[in-house]
């Protein structure tokens, strides 16, 4: 490999976010390289979104069949663990990124295998299997390195699982402790309970899914407990050890005292494996950010064009988990499309006359002028990050929400009305399951008469979320939503019932 190489744009990270950045940035003819030290395709493809949903889907399918009289008698046993794990392996492409590499190369991008560190503005040193290569970006660098699991100090010496080990496990532990109460914790508790593990969930806080409406976490808690999962709220692991008998966790009660730990006698819990699901940290620790005056380990603060604040020259951008703004693949890909378009337009190598001709001819609407004049709802600004972020948790029941919770809306100074409806009261629920249980709640800004948040809890509600996302992003008045007629008998009829409950 050459000792020095130059490109117009260098993207750090070839996960779902980095791939989208590179693809969009190259569309005006910029020469784009992508640097990746692990598998092309990133966390989502191999250790997160895709394999986790492959683990969760069989249990969902069985539960759905068992909820319908006439189909329930055809289900005679639990999930086939070996088949579930084999299918998961297929979904994760057996951790082989050849297909993703072929896509990158087919898109006309240059893939550099290695780890990149900044050596100065627009200059990086990429450590590859063949040695170090100096890479210079003539125009821009985009950091899309994602995030890494945060492991509590008490667990670091016992080789805990993180989401990577949980989603790629080939043996189901007999006893599994899950430390945490968020998305990864609740999804993996659901999946491993389906696979036959004895699962204990240890939550430092007072509820599950603290970012969602309280009723959502309560529904997931009831479901886990009903299925034999032990959930301990207000519990903190203060120390841990591992030996031939397993992992021994010392668990103490969390109180409101200054030290955070109560006076009750600690409990010792012994399990075969422990999963640390206590959040994620931006993957910026070993990027050489100190060479740019930035602090390693911190999230990269960005504006709505995804340019990193505090870096002179407007050449450094970031997208995805690394910014601290988004924590889902879909929102990261949205940011990637924005920053890719910004870079393509801002550093468009074509003469201005060629850009104008392309616009007249109906070509891609990527122009320096359009990017410079971008408004709040422009493709060149990631404004959805502020108040219209969608999230789905594939527990049983599923939880899906977008926008603000009622607490967040009130904290933002909005005068809101909260409207809820039981999904089980719909005709669509009656034909879906004999005992369908679920709830929808919307948060309405009274001043503008628009939905600013919506939460869905129930079987298969994930596919209902996008309608709410459109309503929130589009700021559609309730008076107009009245004319969006839902089909009968479907669960989407809840929109009619919500409007009726709201007095429309």
Q: Any key phrases for this structure?
A:
FAD/NAD(P)-binding domain, alpha/beta, 4 domains, seven-stranded mixed beta sheet
What is this entry, summarized?
The protein is an alpha/beta fold and 504 residues long. The chain has helices at residues 16-25, 42-47, 49-66, 81-91, 98-106, 163-168, 183-194, 214-226, 329-346, 352-360, 368-372, 384-387, 406-411, 427-432, 465-474, 478-481, 494-501; strands at residues 4-12, 32-36, 110-113, 115-120, 123-128, 131-143, 147-149, 175-179, 198-203, 230-233, 235-243, 246-253, 267-271, 273-276, 280-282, 316-318, 390-393, 398-403, 416-422, 439-445, 450-458. The chain folds into four domains: 4-41 and 98-148 and 282-384, FAD/NAD(P)-binding domain, CATH 3.50.50.60; 46-93, no CATH class; 150-278, 3-Layer(bba) Sandwich (FAD/NAD(P)-binding domain); 397-501, FAD/NAD-linked reductase, C-terminal dimerisation domain (Enolase-like, domain 1, 2-Layer Sandwich), CATH 3.30.390.
Task: Please outline the helices and strands.
Elements: E1 4-12, H1 16-25, E2 32-36, H2 42-47, H3 49-66, H4 81-91, H5 98-106, E3 110-113, E4 115-120, E5 123-128, E6 131-143, E7 147-149, H6 163-168, E8 175-179, H7 183-194, E9 198-203, H8 214-226, E10 230-233, E11 235-243, E12 246-253, E13 267-271, E14 273-276, E15 280-282, E16 316-318, H9 329-346, H10 352-360, H11 368-372, H12 384-387, E17 390-393, E18 398-403, H13 406-411, E19 416-422, H14 427-432, E20 439-445, E21 450-458, H15 465-474, H16 478-481, H17 494-501
Parallel strand pairs: 1-2, 1-6, 2-3, 6-16, 8-9, 8-14, 9-10
Antiparallel strand pairs: 4-5, 5-6, 7-15, 11-12, 12-13, 17-18, 18-21, 19-20, 20-21
Helix pairs in contact: 1-9, 3-4, 3-7
């Amino acid at each position: 490999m050459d000792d020095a190489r130059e490109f117009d744009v260098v993207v750090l990270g070839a996960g779902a976010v980095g791939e989208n950045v590179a693809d969009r940035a190259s569309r005006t003819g910029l020469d784009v390289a992508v640097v990746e030290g692990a598998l092309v395709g990133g966390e989502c493809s191999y250790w997160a979104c895709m394999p986790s949903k492959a683990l969760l889907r069989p249990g969902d399918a069985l539960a759905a069949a068992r909820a319908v009289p006439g189909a329930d008698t055809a289900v005679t046993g639990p999930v086939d663990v070996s088949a579930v794990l084999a299918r998961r392996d297929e979904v994760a492409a057996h951790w082989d990124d050849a297909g993703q590499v072929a896509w990158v190369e087919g898109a006309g991008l240059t893939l550099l295998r290695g780890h990149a560190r900044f050596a100065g503005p627009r200059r990086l040193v990429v450590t590859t299997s063949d040695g170090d290569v100096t890479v210079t970006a003539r125009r821009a660098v985009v950091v899309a390195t994602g995030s890494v699991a945060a492991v509590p100090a008490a667990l670091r010496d016992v080789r805990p699982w993180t989401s990577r080990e949980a989603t790629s496990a080939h043996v189901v532990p007999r006893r599994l402790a899950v430390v945490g109460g968020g998305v990864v914790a609740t999804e993996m508790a659901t999946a491993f309970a389906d696979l036959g593990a004895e699962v204990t969930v240890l939550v430092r806080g007072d509820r599950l899914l603290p970012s969602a409406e309280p009723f959502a976490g309560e529904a997931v808690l009831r479901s886990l407990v009903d299925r034999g999962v032990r959930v301990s709220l207000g519990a903190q692991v203060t120390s841990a050890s591992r030996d031939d008998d397993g992992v021994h966790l010392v668990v103490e009660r969390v109180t409101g005292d200054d030290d955070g730990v109560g006076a009750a006698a600690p409990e010792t819990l012994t399990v075969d494996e422990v999963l640390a699901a206590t959040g994620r940290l931006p993957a910026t620790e070993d990027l050489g950010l100190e060479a740019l005056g930035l602090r390693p380990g911190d999230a990269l603060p960005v504006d709505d064009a995804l340019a990193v604040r505090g870096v002179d020259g407007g050449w450094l951008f970031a997208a995805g988990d690394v910014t601290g703004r988004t924590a889902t693949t879909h929102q990261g890909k949205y940011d990637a499309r924005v920053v890719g378009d910004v870079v393509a337009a801002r550093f468009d190598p074509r003469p201005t006359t060629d850009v104008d001709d392309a616009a007249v001819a109906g070509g891609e609407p990527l122009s320096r002028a359009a990017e410079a004049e971008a408004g709040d709802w422009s493709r060149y600004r990631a404004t959805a990050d502020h108040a219209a972020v969608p999230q789905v948790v594939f527990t049983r029941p599923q939880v899906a929400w977008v926008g603000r919770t009622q607490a967040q809306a009130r904290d933002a100074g909005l005068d809101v009305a909260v409207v809820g409806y039981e999904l089980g009261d719909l005709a669509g629920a009656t034909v879906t399951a004999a005992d369908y249980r679920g709830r929808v709640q919307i948060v309405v800004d009274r001043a503008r008469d628009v939905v600013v948040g919506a939460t869905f809890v129930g079987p298969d509600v994930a596919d209902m979320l996008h309608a709410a996302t459109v309503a929130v992003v589009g700021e559609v008045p309730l008076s107009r939503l009245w004319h969006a007629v839902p089909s009968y008998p479907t669960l989407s009829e809840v929109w009619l019932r919500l409007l009726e409950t709201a007095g429309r």
